[in-house]
Specification:
D-Maltodextrin-Binding Protein, domain 2; about 40% helix; 12 helices; Arc Repressor Mutant, subunit A; LysR family transcriptional regulator; single chain; WH_DNA-bd_sf; sequence-specific DNA binding; about 300 residues; 10 strands; 3 domains; alpha/beta
Amino acid sequence: MRRLPPLAALRAFEAAARRSSFKRAAEELNVTPTAISHQIRQLEETLGTRLFERITRAVRLTAAGAQLFPVLRDGFDAFERGVREVQQRSTAPSAVLTSTVAFVARCLAPRAAGFGARHPGWRLRLDATNSTVDLDADADVAIRYGSGDYPGQDVTPLFRDRFAPVCSPALGIRSLRDLRAATLIHFDWGPAMRDHASAPVWRHWLQAAGAAHVDADSGIRFTDEIHAVQATLAGQGVGLLSLALVSEELQAGVLVQPFDLALESFGYHLVSSPRRAQDPAVQVLRDWVLAEFGAAPPAQAPAS
């Protein structure tokens, strides 16, 4: 007969240790932070040792907690794999791919039917979020945008993104002088990325183009990239946009790229957990994503 602490207390500890936060563990388990704290206190009393050090707005594992955490994490991962395998025997298997809202809307959703054609019998679920998703629990594979530095994950580069001014041909933008009277459309990348040397912002593009006469801060700002794309499609101004996200409109002539100059920016990367490398869902998603994006970025029209 096994002598184990209550399962609820072990789940609370594992979630809090993985997320370094009682609050985030509570959100994951759909309970209150007080309930998490109570469960962990009971577990500490049962084991006769402290598992966490409480610090400002966070928690840190003690030596005993650090010893217990990987055992429970790997155990719960094994439970999840076992449950998933049983479920897949009785229902059509599903694969969850997560990426940014803009990339899902502009690049994945239009290609979704191709997944079923390539992997009959599988169901694809696209999770559109700008938050980082747990690839051991909440999704199978991610396409992430950034430098490619994702410690502890399996990372496969897909393609580097390029940004350039694009607009409706009705605006008649043909020269740098035309930009002075045009409305510039901005996507607010946030402080961390905005000041990065590779940030695709108007200030960097105008400097590279030698257009000192254009006010880099003028125009309309959006906190969601997809809204910046929509405003540009609506003819509201000139957007400094990802050429990958508007490739279809450039090919169709709905948008034009008036200038050859494009900024090299961060890249898109296929990311998955090494602990799930043999999972069928991970494998079918890797196969599909690499077939769609592994050779080259989405086709782009030449500058007009």
